[in-house]
Amino acid sequence: MTPESVVSIAGVSKVFGKGGVVALQGIDLSVERGDFISLIGPSGCGKSTLLRVVGDITEPTSGEVVVNGKRARQAREDRDYGIVFQAPVLFDWRTVAKNIALPLEMQRWDRARRQERVAEMLELVELTGFEKLYPWQLSGGMQQRVSIARALAFSPPLLLMDEPFGALDEMTRERLNLELLRIWSETGSTVIFVTHSISEAVFLSTRVAVMSPRPGRISAVVEVDLPQPRTAETREHPRFFELVTRVREALHATGADEVEEHLAAEGPE
Amino acid sequence: MSVTTFGESKPSLGRRFLSWLREWLPALVVIAIGLVVWQWVLPDVVGVQRFLLPRFSAVAQTFWDEREALWSAGWFTFKEALGGWAIGSSLAFVSALALARWRPLGRALMPYAIAANAIPIIAFAPITNAWFGTFSPRSKMAIAAVLCFFPVLVNSLRGLTSVRPESIELMRSYAASEASTFRRVRIPNSLPFVFSGLKVASVLAMIGAIVGDYFGGSIEALGIQIRSSVGLSQFEYAWAAILVASILGLVFYGAISLVEHFALRWHPSSRRVE
């Protein structure tokens, strides 16, 4: 582990239940400070499980996870990361401002500091003026921006994102991709981002870890050397297409297609 | 963006009365027909006897003449219902908290709670009279409390446990304690369920108090007055007392709905369709 690495995963395996469904096997991955790393793979490859292991929401069966130089559990107790799920997971009974302030309340920030930070976060996700609304009064994209603001409110050094834009339409998704990159460059945080969209992974990341299913393994890591900052034009860059092809081929090499066909034949999980 | 707005200024009083009338007219017509049938059609055309159903005008006359006795009896019984409702519902919510906190306990006890919900608890009314004294309001509160307990317990527990897993994962990511997760997630999440339990319980509490009275109780109680006036062939008084019980039941239910409306301002169901 280099001194600059924020997350270091060594030999992590995860077996679910007594039946022994192997979700993850022999995962090694190091995430450097300021990295934006995507985990990509077909459904059932364990990418969300890996994210939850890093966040100490699920415990690995074996192996070690070090976050910010500490064991994962210690890092969670020190609130070293913010997390964003596929669903916004906002609390219906709290206004936008109070949802963003939730982690600050838990860390006993005083009211004045809380209000100040909430105002900053609303500005960051461009929702100033919406603080008094309740979640159901917002669109899906706006709700997800609130949940990103909540995850970043206490400036955690690490941001874990589990398919945060998976449920949004393509246009909202591309806009939020750009917004996320702006936030990432402004806050200088480190991001682990789970997705099953190849173009999203290439567009956002500094590195893409390709995972193969059953058992879940990291089969390739693709360095994304597209210039920063990325803009809407990045998607038209010839290098962008090359990298998308590279990731797609790496996914094909894992036999993901066969698994998808197999799953389709089996019906929904 | 320019939007032309029509009728933004408040409509005139007459206008508002007309629109109110249009909305409520069908309901008013129904009640008018009902009263006509009660007053004239049933006694004069169908030939329904006074002991089966007295004329509406006679019931209304008694309702007015005996208003003091009726409302004081109503208030006496309402206090029994309210006391039982408050005791039963709070015990149920506290039990639900315990069962939600220690899930194995919940899994062990819930089948019995659901089964108990199907028992005709009102059958125990003579027994609670024996336990707490026939003439004491406490025996009626006891039966009302037991009646309220199960619906509030089952609803509260459902509300406390039907939290999406990500909400709990989020709280875990904040290293939140169990108490904090209850306070910030489970309890607020349970409130819509708790209120529907409380509303069902309010109806049951009124039933419990009145039926409890039927098995004996203070002469000041509404249930006793209904029973004895039927015994004395004072059917108008019995019907007027039933009317008092109905009004109190509706007010009780309405008051809880009103509190719910203000407490659950955040709930998507409070969205007004206009």
Structure description:
The complex is a heterodimer of chains A (269) and B (274). In chain A, strand 4 and strand 5 form a beta hairpin. By secondary structure, chain A is of the alpha/beta class. Chain A contains 9 helices and 10 strands. In chain A, strands 6-7-8-3-9-10 form a 6-stranded mixed sheet, sandwiched between helices. A 4-stranded antiparallel sheet of chain A has the order 2-1-4-5. Chain A folds into 2 domains: 176 residues, 3-Layer(aba) Sandwich (Rossmann fold); 66 residues, no CATH class. In chain A, helix 3 runs parallel beside helix 5, helix 4 crosses helix 5 and helix 7 packs across helix 8. By secondary structure, chain B is mostly helical. Chain B has one domain: MetI-like fold, CATH 1.10.3720. The N terminus of chain B is likely disordered. Chains A and B meet through strand 6 and helix 3 of A and helix 7 and helix 8 of B.
- Fraction of residues in H or I helices of chain B: over 70%
Order of helices and strands of chain A: EEEHEEHEHHHEHEHEEHH
The total count of helices of chain A amounts to: 9
Please indicate the count of domains of chain A.
2
The CATH architecture of chain B would be: Orthogonal Bundle
Amount of helix of chain A: 25-40%
CATH topology of the largest domain in chain A: Rossmann fold
Q: Please give the CATH architecture of the largest domain in chain A.
A: 3-Layer(aba) Sandwich
Distance between the termini of chain A: 37 Å
Task: Tally the beta strands of chain A.
Answer: 10
What is the radius of gyration of chain B? Answer: 24 Å
Mean pLDDT of chain A, to the nearest integer, reads 84
Summary of the model, kept short:
Chain A has 269 residues and is α/β, with parallel strands linked by helices. Chain A folds into two domains: 1-80 and 158-169 and 186-269, Rossmann fold; 90-155, no CATH class.
